UniProtKB/TrEMBL annotation:
<feature type="transmembrane region" description="Helical">
    <location>
        <begin position="110"/>
        <end position="129"/>
    </location>
</feature>
<feature type="transmembrane region" description="Helical">
    <location>
        <begin position="155"/>
        <end position="178"/>
    </location>
</feature>
<dbReference type="InterPro" id="IPR032808">
    <property type="entry name" value="DoxX"/>
</dbReference>
<feature type="transmembrane region" description="Helical">
    <location>
        <begin position="82"/>
        <end position="103"/>
    </location>
</feature>
<comment type="similarity">
    <text>Belongs to the DoxX family.</text>
</comment>
<dbReference type="InterPro" id="IPR051907">
    <property type="entry name" value="DoxX-like_oxidoreductase"/>
</dbReference>
<keyword id="KW-1133">Transmembrane helix</keyword>
<keyword id="KW-0812">Transmembrane</keyword>
<keyword id="KW-1003">Cell membrane</keyword>
<dbReference type="Pfam" id="PF07681">
    <property type="entry name" value="DoxX"/>
</dbReference>
<feature type="transmembrane region" description="Helical">
    <location>
        <begin position="21"/>
        <end position="40"/>
    </location>
</feature>
<protein>
    <submittedName>
        <fullName>DoxX family protein</fullName>
    </submittedName>
</protein>
<keyword id="KW-0472">Membrane</keyword>
Length: 187
């Protein structure tokens, strides 16, 4: 029996060591495969027209982020203030920058924390701003259905991001390259 336990421990110790290298890489791959284009496309819908669209968000940006405030302003964006503009621009830029940082593995822990905050705010806006409270969309944990957009999917998104906050970007990343350069310079 001891030989079997030793064999088990040896095999799974090897898997655990490989997992320390593979888990962050696989988490970043999963994020890229599932969420990179989703967020970039969402960011594109928020950009205004023309060259200066990166500074002038579309009305769709305001309707996605501040639906009730935009409705109260009669869908006249000029009735909203600098605060609304700044939040819309920060959210729009975050949809481009944070996913890119995660995929290349640069400032991965901070970018992942930022994305967790983004997913939380996105979910709260969907529920309270857009009224996404129907059972199919909102869902519930510990039920028989596993396909709700908010409770189920976004929990899985956050889990992938938590792996990156805890483990970092892994060996194949800009973070690891910078760490190795720093270690070489200090040695």
């Amino acid at each position: 029996m001891n030989a079997l336990i030793s064999l088990h421990n040896a095999a799974f110790d090897l898997i655990e060591r490989a997992g320390n290298w593979l888990m962050p890489l696989f988490a970043r791959f999963t994020f890229a495969a599932v969420l990179l284009i989703y967020y970039w496309n969402s960011g594109l819908t928020k950009l205004g027209d023309g060259l200066f669209g990166v500074l002038s968000p579309s009305i769709g940006a305001y309707s996605q982020i501040f639906p009730k405030q935009l409705e109260a302003a009669g869908y006249d964006v000029s009735q909203l203030g600098v605060f609304h503009w700044a939040v819309v621009m920060a959210g729009t830029y975050a949809e481009f920058i944070l996913p890119l940082l995660i995929v290349i593995g640069f400032a991965t822990r901070l970018a992942s924390l930022g994305m967790i905050g983004f997913v939380v705010m996105q979910s709260l806006t969907d529920v309270y701003g857009h009224g996404a409270t129907d059972a199919k969309t909102l869902g519930a944990w510990f039920d028989r259905a596993s396909d709700s957009t908010i409770m189920d999917q976004r929990l899985l998104w956050v889990f992938v991001l938590v792996v990156l906050v805890v483990k970092g970007a892994g060996a194949l990343s800009v973070d690891a390259l910078l760490r190795r350069r720093q270690d070489d310079a200090s040695a």
